[in-house]
Amino acid sequence: MLIECLRLTASQVYLVHGPRPVLVDVGLARDAPTVTAWLARKQIAPRDLGAIILTHAHADHAGAVSALAHWSGAPVVVGMGDVSTVHSGGRDGSSPPTGIRRVLASFGLIQAYPPLPRHYPVIPVETGLELEALGGVGAVLPVPGHTSGSVAVVLDSGDVIAGDVLIGGYLLGVVARSTPVSHFHHVDRSRNRASIGALLSTGAHTWHLGHGGPVASESVRAWLDRSPSG
Ligand SMILES: [Zn+2]
Questions:
Q1: Domain harbouring 168, CATH code
Q2: What number is the average pLDDT over the span 124-129?
Q3: What would the mean pLDDT of 95-120 be, rounded to a whole number?
Q4: Residue 61 C-alpha to ligand 1 middle, in angstroms?
Q5: SS3 for 107?
Q6: What DSSP assignment string belongs to 144-203?
């Protein structure tokens, strides 16, 4: 199996079996021991990990980045627009306005987390990136909109790991997990919509998301057609 998914309390992380195993997202700060135990059960030693890719820098996806980085030593791959957020542990200036901030905080999405030290190796994604650890199985693409530095992992198998461009199901993926649902917060909704279109044009068939899913591309296309605002 090329992709494996670990469901955490607030989000999901993925393991991609490329030339070297790659972890996509890391969960909340408190999820670190759960994620490392999961990797250990898969016989993945810390030094085996080829990269840690963050779909974006929100706390429920990137909160354990510092712990996982220290555990593995693997480079952290993050969209250019989210690098400063990772280095500030979710405290940078690209935060949404106060009212929305409060709602997001109540979902645990924007809480602060242990920052990734500045000396730690980071691979920023500005345009499509071929990673050695994903050589022959896929690439990392910028999909800005949910955050300015959101990225997706696009695999040659037709699977995409797309973070929060969409949610699979209602109540953050608890109900009807294969139904595409708009995320309640994007920094730029029309850019996110364009990013979804770009991912569809890769010929992907299955969307693996940060919450809920997986969702079939036909459902995403139908959702895009009937949701003019994205
Ligand atoms: Zn998010």
A1: 3.60.15.10
A2: 95
A3: 75
A4: 7
A5: coil
A6: TTSSTT-EEEEETTSEEE-TTSSEEEETTTTEEEEEEE--S--S-HHHHHHHHHHHHTTT
- What stretch of H or E contains 15? strand 12-17
What is the pLDDT of the chain when averaged over all its residues?
A: 92
Residue 44 above 60 pLDDT?
yes
Instruction: Work out how many domains the chain is built from and give that number.
Output: 1
Alpha carbon of 172 to ligand 1 centroid (Å): 11
Angle subtended by helix axes 32-41 and 65-72, to nearest 10: 40
Q: Measured between alpha carbons, how far is 140 from 151 in angstroms, rounded to an integer?
A: 7
User: How far, in Å, from the CA of 14 to the mean position of ligand 1?
Assistant: 15
pLDDT at 80: 97
**pLDDT score for 203:** 94
Q: What is the mean pLDDT of residues 90-113?
A: 67
Q: Ligand 1 mean position to 58 CA, how many Å? A: 5
State the amino acid at position 3 in one-letter form: I
**What residues make up the domain containing 220?**
3-226
Give pLDDT, residue 108.
Answer: 60
DSSP 197-222: HHHHTTT--EEE-SSB--EEHHHHHH
**Token reading at 22:** 């790659």
Q: How many CA atoms lie within 13 A of 102 on its CB side?
A: 2
